[in-house]
Amino acid sequence: MKPIQVGLLGIGTVGGGTFSVLQRNQDEIRRRAGRGIEISMVADLDTERARSVVGDKAKVVADAREVIGNPDIDVVVELIGGYGIAKALVLEAIAAGKHVVTANKALLAVHGTEIFKAAAEKGVMVSYEAAVAGGIPIIKALREGLTANRIQWVAGIINGTTNFILSEMRDKGLDFDVVLKEAQRLGYAEADPTFDIEGVDAAHKVTLMSSIAFGIPVQFDKAYVEGITKLAAADIKYAEQLGYRIKLLGITKRTAKGIELRVHPSLVPAKRLIANVEGAMNAVVVNGDAVGATLYYGKGAGSEPTASAVIADLVDIARLHEADPEHRVPPLAFQSSSLVAAGGDLPVLPMADVVTSYYLRIRVSDEAGVLAKITGLLANAGISIDAVLQREADEVGGEGSTQTDLIILTHDTREGDMDRALAEIQGLPTVLAPINRIRKEELSN
Ligand code: HSE
């Protein structure tokens, strides 16, 4: 059979990796796909650099629309990123009847509904394994391997930059700002790291996993997003003393009231495997009613790990592109006619209705009755305490200090109730600084 013809839009880190892995493993890939997969066109504004990567093996152009307009191209791989030109080009490629492979989580998390609808109308595939957790085949696992299950929850370390920063903060006892600068110097963090450190990148990824897990449309606008910028070395140290690690988790969970969809730093018991995922590595735990907890671990970014996911999508397309569209795997795992409408039976819950447990760090005057007052306010709000740790004032504020940190772990409670209790506690004259609240996830069942 004639090799399937691929056009790459953008040949940076991932595009270069895709080109070289396809070259290196072409025989093996052909044996799996049943036909060859050839990158025959590449569009990149930097045509010189593109030529230095592909040599004479592919035609290089500066204008992506030349690729889309070429009738010989079967699949367009979008590796430009962002919501701007990438969105226009993906929609144009679909309109031209091309299958699309993309690593663009931001685009799909925000505009996925429009893009998947356009693809369904045109009978083409939009594949995005590389958009979530890089080389880990988590989309395949959720969409196909776990298809028998009613998924209960998904929790993942799905941003390598922030996991690297948190690992360094823990190893070296340093604060966030210091580690971020070091990570930028070493090239682990982007010059503008906002999407990573504010949790937006992780929220894009968990939004996609939530849709596939529960059969709901992509709803990034409903995700709760909190990054790691407010974490202090002290929180990491106290968490450790209580048997926990702090990780930036993307969490999506089925509850009786609806779907939780959230990204925030979380205390995770140190004994859980996912708590021990260090550096820039990614890991995702999926809990299904039949299978129980399953864990997926690997590189979430980088040239060849991400290329591994892009090429897996190309192989799927090579195998299925002549199949009746109804016999292909639906892009969001559920048949599009069976997705629960946004706000329908499975609404994404507002954060006030999320139920979780908490770590609280409260800077107080070290005087009689302070702890009793705070625990009284928590009790009035129906919040049950799991553990309390009080540091010696000297240890916290230096010799002769009259301030100390109270660390309180709570049992599960509604976030709205916790918000109200914290507002009251914050108003106490003996509470001397903004309270640090970090959610805690046991991830036990
Ligand atoms: N910037 C992401 C990370 C990789 O740090 O994991 C691409 O999604």
Q: How would you portray this structure in words?
A:
Helix content is 38%, strand content 24%. By secondary structure, the protein is an alpha/beta fold. The chain has three domains: 4-136 and 304-338, NAD(P)-binding Rossmann-like Domain (Rossmann fold), CATH 3.40.50; 138-299, Dihydrodipicolinate Reductase, domain 2 (2-Layer Sandwich), CATH 3.30.360; 356-440, 2-Layer Sandwich (Alpha-Beta Plaits), CATH 3.30.70. Helix 5 (85-95) packs parallel to helix 6, helix 6 (105-122) runs parallel beside helix 11 and helix 14 (370-380) runs antiparallel to helix 16 (415-426). The longest helix is centred in the first third of the chain and has 18 residues, at 105-122. It is elongated, with a radius of gyration of 24 Å. The mean pLDDT is 95. L-homoserine binds next to helix 8.
List the helices and strands and how they pair.
Layout: E1 4-9, H1 13-24, H2 26-33, E2 37-43, H3 47-54, E3 59-61, H4 64-68, E4 75-78, H5 85-95, E5 99-102, H6 105-122, E6 126-127, H7 138-145, E7 151-157, H8 160-172, H9 176-185, H10 194-197, H11 200-214, E8 224-225, H12 233-241, E9 244-254, E10 259-269, E11 281-288, E12 292-299, H13 303-320, E13 355-365, H14 370-380, E14 385-390, H15 393-397, E15 403-410, E16 413-414, H16 415-426, E17 436-440
Parallel strand pairs: 1-2, 1-4, 2-3, 4-5, 5-6, 8-10, 10-17
Antiparallel strand pairs: 7-9, 7-11, 9-10, 11-12, 13-15, 13-16, 13-17, 14-15
Helix pairs in contact: 1-13, 5-6, 6-11, 8-9, 14-16
L-homoserine binds near residues 159 and 201.
